[in-house]
Write a structure and sequence with these properties.
mainly alpha; 44% helix; 9% strand
Length: 202
Amino acid sequence: MVFTLSTVGGTFVRMVDCNRLLKLRLVVARFGEMDCAKWWNTRGVLGNVGKLAYSRGFPKTQVFARARAVFAVANQRSNEVFDAPDSFNLWKLPADIEDQFQEFLCNCLDSPEEWEEFVENLTCGPESDLMELLGSHGLIDEEVRTTAKELRRADDSRSVPLPKTSTANDRAVSLLAAAFSRGEPGKLAVPYVRFEGEEVNG
């Protein structure tokens, strides 16, 4: 998807693939659950336990109900750990992108089978490696992998600053996901970025 944004210096085009964004969020959300990296307070919601529990109330859309639940908890926990002014993270992107993402999720409700299969394949445990998991689903390339490995946590160990960039695009979002790997089990470090000319609304 292509987003056009007017800035002080003119107009630029940013491209974010919502299909890819959903997959990135699903992988990191699953990885951060209490039965894996122990970053946010959900346990197996995107695993078999969650499938059984949510299938009772949401037989056709349970995969999206589970995803929204973990996304919300991951976002809340990330904000508790680190929430710098005018910064964006994997769960909080510029408003127009989030609007398009919500529209994309609504369209996905008509064909949940693809996403049920994707989530089924998100096998994860305490010894899992986030970058390997992202790579196995074709969500990061070698450049993103290398860049993420070179990133360092801030002095307070609660965040991972990414270099400031001009706009949100697939590479920036992929790096936000991969940079979660700089955290440790039970010790969340929130990757964040600032985009030139962007401010967080609200």
